[in-house]
Amino acid sequence: MEEISFEDFEKLDIRIGKILSAEKVPDTDKLVKLVFDMGDHERQVVAGIAEIVEDPAELIGKQVPVLINLKPRTLKGKESNGMILAVNVDGKPTFMSPEKQVPPGSPIT
Q1: Residues 6 or more apart from 52 whose CB is under 8 A from it?
Q2: Cys-Cys link to 22, which of 11, 44, 56, 74 (CB 3.0-4.6 A)?
Q3: Any idea where the domains of the chain sit in the sequence?
């Protein structure tokens, strides 16, 4: 694994986002479009999590860490403005959530 400097780590802007909406991206097997409340704005993220989520609507209201200063990408015609952070368990992502509810947009330090 390549090590990064502390200065590189400081460049990452990771905040808690609250999922406002979640829907499977049509004509894909893996993609879900998520809209987050980030406190001062809403943000759309497209994530490859459909294989672990039976009904994306069940994600609404969950709080998860979001890397918000990642360069935008377009996936299957949907713009993704960030990346959710999850734990890899047996090759599948598992969501991380704060122990208690926190204000959307709270920075992870």
Answers
A1: 92, 93, 94
A2: 56
A3: 6-95
CATH class (in words) of the domain with range 6-95: mainly beta
- Rg of the chain on CA atoms, in Å: 14
C-alpha 39: how far from its chain's center? 15
Instruction: Report pTM.
Output: 0.91
d(CA 107, CA 109): 6
Among 17, 18, 24, 25, residue whose Cα is nearest residue 70:
17
The tens digit of pLDDT for each residue in 54-108 reads 899 999 999 999 999 999 999 999 999 999 998 888 877 788 889 899 999 999 9
CA distance 100 to 88: 22
